[in-house]
Design a protein that fits this description.
mainly alpha; two-stranded antiparallel ribbon; 3 helices; 2 strands
Length: 87
């Protein structure tokens, strides 16, 4: 009887994975279900710089660009995210 239950579970979860539209997420959801673990909430609500805390996520890419350019010492012509790229 135990083998029948295991086979039924295996078939059920295999079909769930095969028929899913977002395969990788579905695999992780099934893994969490089978292992009894819960998904972590990794949402970012703010980011900290060396001199302040910001909730404005429009400035985050610009901050990262400036940071990585400053540690390499190279300043290339990287367009500002606020620039209008229309021709």
């Amino acid at each position: 009887m135990l083998n029948v239950i295991r086979e039924a579970k295996k078939n059920y979860f295999s079909k769930q994975i095969k028929n899913s539209k977002n395969g990788m997420k579905n695999i992780w959801d099934i893994t969490r279900l089978l292992t009894g673990t819960r998904a972590k909430n990794d949402d970012v609500h703010q980011f900290n710089t060396h001199d302040n805390t910001s909730h404005d996520f429009q400035t985050m890419p610009e901050y990262f660009n400036n940071y990585f350019l400053s540690i390499t010492g190279k300043h290339h012509n990287i367009p500002n995210m606020n620039d209008n790229f229309a021709a």
